[in-house]
Description:
Bound molecules: ligand TUI
Radius of gyration: 19 Å
Oligomer: single chain
Number of strands: 11
Structural class: alpha/beta
Strand order of the largest sheet: 1-9-8-6-5-4-3-2
Number of helices: 13
Order of helices and strands: HEHEHEHEHEHEEHEHEHEEHHHH
Amino acid sequence: MENEICxxxxxxxxxxxxxMAWIADASLAGAVSEAGGLGIIGAGNAPREKIAEExxxxxxxxxxxxxxxxxxxxxFVEEIIDLVLSEKVPVVxxxxxxxxxxxxxxxxxxxxxxxxxxxxxxxxxxxKIGADAVIxxxxxxxxxxxxxxxxxxxxxxxxxVQIPVIAAGGIGDGRGMAASFLLGAQGVQMGxxxxxxxxxxxxxxxxxxxxxxxxxxxxxxxxxxxxxxRGLKNQLTQSYDRLEREELQKAAPDPSVLENLGIGxxxxxxxxxxxxxxxxxxxxxxxxxxxxxxxxxxxxxIMEESRTVFAKGASEW
Length: 317
Ligand code: TUI
């Protein structure tokens, strides 16, 4: 029997590569799609021309399906939506908000729409307005996160909707994939693990910091106002914590103090390799021991391991 996600998207393996802002470009997404997974270009805060270029590049790398992740807080969200509609990209994933008002245009263009949802309520709403599947992302994930863990979110969403569920947040190997399927998911999305793909163009210092990370090395900034973001601890996250504490003492806390600190921080880490004062977004699975490898090898290893541990479990309990 075919996997529902593979059938829906015409891909070989139900593995999505997270559409990481500044990081997930045509090089990484093209390699993942070419290897049979779903590669996703992260639009992040980029303007239309930048993403148009990445779409052109990925089409030169592969003729397999790919996706574009639309970060709904982007100042360029309207022009990115116009771009994916005119380019008729095969798949759109959305993050950091509710994509309801764009759903009709996506569907009219024949685009498969798979929103990231942090709750059962939003998953049900997305199913109702025509989403093809949902990505249930737990707060183990890197970047902007919701409040629930993958372990509790996936089964509750799987029970609440009939469309396929893709598990995300804290998944980095075949064990995580097998566990996700046992919780009711039909696919997985991984971001942090693909940072160590050879085709991932993130600065080598960023990759090194991921390789050296321990289980307890991530933290959440902007927990109390603004948008909570998970990344590896460094001087930037310490400054955030201090400023946030200071602001919260005030009679009228001003969230813009924190926003100012965040502007350009991700770019500093990804492009310049400043992992001390830049934002090194990563999930809690960064502590997992993993080597740099081609995207194809990562996908093959995870497929094989997930099947092995699943079969082992079935024979032991
Ligand atoms: O979007 C992500 N991860 C991201 S976006 C990003 S760029 C950024 N940087 C700083 C601040 C904000 C964004 C870096 N990482 N993951 C998907 C995701 N979506 N996580 C949580 C959500 C989410 C949250 C609320 C989705 C929907 C939602 O809906 C609220 C509503 O309006 O109902």
